[in-house]
């Protein structure tokens, strides 16, 4: 059964990765900041704070529940994110352009073996932290999660920018793994 599952995941990635790279190549110019388009989020809110409420997000292969979230401008929300899929997924709060710019970084993590379809190699990623080629994915607005993991992210929405939450693992965004984040 494991061989079948691995073969199915490999086949899915073979189809979705080229589509994801095409999406990223046609993207806008806005970036998270930092090198390789994966530094700190700029102008989209602030990490931390005292949350006024908790929103539970469940990640599946390849969609979120719920698919849409509304927040008040200035509101601080604690997201409890569960990866119930069989693949690695990301929960990343950002603008659509920044998600497109983040795609090539995520593809590079796959190419370097730091992310596999069903596993994040955190020790290898952490070893690059602070280097000229930092691939640690240490981003305050993002959670990179193995199947079965639950993590939390607290975010204050003090921006007017158009935001969404998305998975930038190669092929996942293009398969529809993103949701609207309305700021009222």
Tell the overall outline.
globular
The helix content is: 10-25%
Q: What are the secondary-structure elements, in order, as H or E? A: HEEEEEEHEEHEEEE
Low-confidence stretches: 1-40
- What is the CATH homologous superfamily assignment? Cupredoxins -  blue copper proteins
Round the mean pLDDT to the nearest integer and report it: 80
The biggest sheet amounts to: 5 strands, mixed
Number of helices: 3
Secondary structure class reads alpha+beta
Q: Number of DSSP strands? A: 12
Tally of separate domains: 1
How would you portray this structure in words?
This protein is of the alpha+beta class. It has one domain (2-183): Cupredoxins -  blue copper proteins (Immunoglobulin-like, Sandwich). It contains three helices and twelve strands; from the N terminus they run H-E-E-E-E-E-E-H-E-E-H-E-E-E-E. It has helices at 2-25, 96-111, 122-126, and strands at 46-47, 53-60, 63-65, 68-71, 76-83, 89-94, 115-116, 119-120, 142-145, 150-156, 163-166, 178-183. Helix 1 packs across helix 2 (96-111). The N and C termini lie far apart (47 Å).
Features:
3 helices; single chain; five-stranded mixed sheet; Immunoglobulin-like; alpha+beta; 184 residues
Chart the SSEs and their pairings.
Layout: H1 2-25, E1 46-47, E2 53-60, E3 63-65, E4 68-71, E5 76-83, E6 89-94, H2 96-111, E7 115-116, E8 119-120, H3 122-126, E9 142-145, E10 150-156, E11 163-166, E12 178-183
Parallel strand pairs: 2-5, 4-12
Antiparallel strand pairs: 1-10, 2-3, 5-10, 6-9, 6-11, 7-8, 11-12
Helix pairs in contact: 1-2
Concise synopsis of the structure shown:
Helix 1 packs across helix 2.
């Amino acid at each position: 059964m494991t061989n079948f599952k691995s073969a199915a995941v490999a086949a899915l990635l073979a189809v979705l990765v080229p589509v994801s790279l095409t999406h990223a190549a046609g993207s806008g110019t806005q970036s998270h900041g930092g090198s390789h388009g994966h530094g700190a989020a700029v102008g989209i809110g602030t990490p931390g704070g005292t949350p006024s409420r908790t929103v539970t997000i469940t990640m599946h292969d390849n969609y979120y529940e719920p698919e849409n979230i509304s927040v008040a401008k200035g509101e601080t929300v604690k997201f409890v994110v569960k990866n119930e899929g069989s693949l690695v997924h990301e929960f990343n709060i950002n603008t659509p352009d920044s998600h497109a710019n983040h795609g090539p970084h995520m593809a590079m993590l796959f190419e370097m073996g730091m992310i596999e379809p069903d596993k994040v190699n955190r020790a290898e990623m952490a070893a690059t932290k602070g280097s000229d080629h930092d691939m640690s994915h240490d981003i305050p607005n993002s959670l990179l999660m193995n199947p079965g993991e639950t993590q939390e992210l607290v975010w204050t929405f003090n921006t007017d920018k158009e935001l969404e939450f998305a998975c930038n693992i190669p092929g996942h965004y293009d398969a529809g793994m993103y949701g609207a984040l309305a700021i009222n």
